[in-house]
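Example 3.2
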Amino acid sequence: MFFTSLVLLAGCHTQAKKLKTASAETLYTNGRKALVNNDFEYAIKQYEALTSRFPFTSQARQARLDLIYAYYRKGEKETAIDAADQFLRENPTHPRVDYAWYMKGLIYFERTPFSVERFFGVDMAKRPPTDLLKSITAFSTVVTQYPNSEYAHDALKRMTYLRNRLAEYEVNVARYYVRRGAYIAAARRAEGVIEQYDGAPAEQQALAIILDCYRRLGYTELAANIERVYQFNYPATNEVVSAKGKHWWQVWKRT
């Protein structure tokens, strides 16, 4: 046991010495090989040594970009976001800035428990959208500022999904107000869905809520106008069915 401990200590000492004496190119090459082989812990050690010892080299700039992915894959999501923020601050004109923004969006996107909630049939949109706006902001940056990026298409798809989820969340808040008898607040919340998330699947349910609230409040003329709009856009349904039908995200459960 004692001999084994000595061997381990000697190995650690040797590794630490190599990190202190290796060149920038060697550290980057070692880190890149480890990253390709999914040895994220070893890659992180190499990259961290590189960025610490040779902070102004081209290898260090690339290492900071690779560190975002290495932290992400190792499960250190907060550290990955910090690494992305640092890269964006220090390299605003780098040709791969789009990748840093995309990774930020992806990490925030994955911090919400989508898969577990879908499996158990839980309404995901009832949770407050804590990280969704941050994810949308990051993906939107990729789509609008870097439209030719290889990540733009996926960023747009994820951003659309999150936008629809936020619309559904707002509809759930409006329903809560209806249950509390706060019909004016419910109608305003539903109106916000139509104004901010035009074209989202939840728009139909928002119209149904507005119609219901106006009827309850005795706003006969306003209710008639909303009903005409509703019937024009959704002639084959009615407001009760639309408000209680399948959620837009449940299409994923059919696969």
